[in-house]
Design brief:
DNA-bd_dom_put_sf; MerR family transcriptional regulator; DNA-binding; Multidrug-efflux Transporter Regulator, Chain: A, Domain 2; about 80 residues; 3 strands
Amino acid sequence: MDPTVSKKQACFPIRVVMEMTNLTARQIRYYEEQGLIKPARNDGNQRMFSLEDIERFRLIKSYIERGINVAGIKTILATNVRDL
DNA sequence: TTTCTAACA
DNA sequence: TGTTAGGA
C-alpha cells in the first residue's frame, strides 16, 4: 500500500454485507458474537466490513448451507486459520 | 435514517 | 433466528 495516498481501505456498513452475502443482520452480528469473524469498528461503535470480511462471510455461509452449525464452523476456522 | 446492544417470544 | 425496545 501507499501510506502517503491512502489510509483507509474499502469498508461497508452492515446493509451492504447483507446484500452481498444474503445473510440477515441478525446472522452477521451473531456470527461475530460467536467469534467467527472480527469486523472493525469505526464511528459510534458501528461495524465497518472490509472486502476480506465479506469473503469470510461467504465462506461461513457456505458452511451453514452445508448444514454445519456455528460451533462446527468455529472449530474449522480455528484449525485452519489462526489470525489476530 | 441507519446501526447498535440486550433480551424476549 | 426473528423481532423489538431504547439509545447513539
